[in-house]
Amino acid sequence: MGQVGSYDLGIPTTPLFTGAARELGASAKEAGPMRLTLILVAALLVPSTADAGLQEFVRSDCNADGLIDLGDAIQLLNHLFDSAPISCSDACDGNDDGLIDIADAIHNLSYLFTFGPAPTAPFPDCGNDPTDDFLDCTSFDSCSVASISYGLDIQPIWDAHCTICHAPGGVGVLFAGLDLETDSYNALVGVPSTQAPLSRVEPFDPNASYLWHKLNGTQLSVGGTGQTMPIMGPPLDAATLALIEQWILEGANP
Ligand code: HEC
Ligand SMILES: [Ca+2]
Ligand SMILES: [Ca+2]
Ligand SMILES: [Ca+2]
To answer: Ligand 3: distance of its center to the CA of 93 in Å?
Structure first.
């Protein structure tokens, strides 16, 4: 067992097995030959169905942000050449051959830019991997079931703390153009701020959401201006802020 790799174990180098070895390569390099052997043996003993996890994903969305774009190819290349971590290897396997390699980046780019074939299922909706392999998907946030309801959980916060100013005729509408009473969801999500070069709410990204900075007093750090919200009222308590943060992290769903 001193030898390392698939050959001395008498295992044929099927694409599936090569995939497992490549995936394990980065961590095994530091761990040394003995450890690598153990990992390889362990990988062989795991029945291939163990990989059919419950975490749903969208193929080709390698950085799991809910969008298929250039960022996915970049994430993949960073992973291959710089060992950048990925939370869902299955999603990065754009051509679904059980390997994460440069062919997936090419598949992704040719789909985006030259009308190449679309990724196979699960795509474009969330789902499980229909073809078994050694790749893992430990987490994929944009396919997790949202637990926060905008109408039930978030709007009541605005009603209690904000609409005294942010309703038609109020100073928050007059001076910042933000109505949090009438159709507040569509006034926030993906809508540019009137004060800073950010969206008011950017799904999945509190730090790119100007509203989040206005609530935390960090509006100046992102090129914004004015008071911390709510003006005149006490700041929102930690639990309320955490709820708003979670809502944004889950994708700012309606
Ligand atoms: C007492 C009135 C008042 C209250 C209460 C208030 N605001 Fe404001 N809000 C303003 C005014 C006036 C501005 C513009 C001047 C400034 O930013 O200081 C503003 C600006 C904003 C902006 C910037 C909008 C943009 O497009 O850049 C956001 C976001 C905001 N408020 C959110 C809130 C939230 C959320 C609450 C409740 C937690 C709240 N405000 C409570 C008066 C208020
Ligand atoms: Ca993506
Ligand atoms: Ca692949
Ligand atoms: Ca697969």
So the answer is: 4
pLDDT-derived band of residue 198, with 50, 70 and 90 as boundaries? very high
Distance CA(162)–CA(153), nearest Å, equals 14
Statement: residue 17 has pLDDT above 70? no
221 vs 7: CA distance, rounded Å? 56
Contact 200/193 with Cβ under 8 angstroms? yes
Domains of the chain: 1-46 (no CATH), 49-144 (1.10.1330.10), 150-249 (no CATH)
For 18-34, write each residue's pLDDT tens digit. 433 334 334 444 544 44
Mean pLDDT (the chain) is 83
The rounded Å distance from CA 98 to ligand 4 centre is 5
Q: Is 17 helix (H, G, I), strand (E, B) or coil?
A: helix
Contact 140, 87 (CB under 8 A): yes
Q: Whose CA is nearest to atom 11 of ligand 1?
A: 172
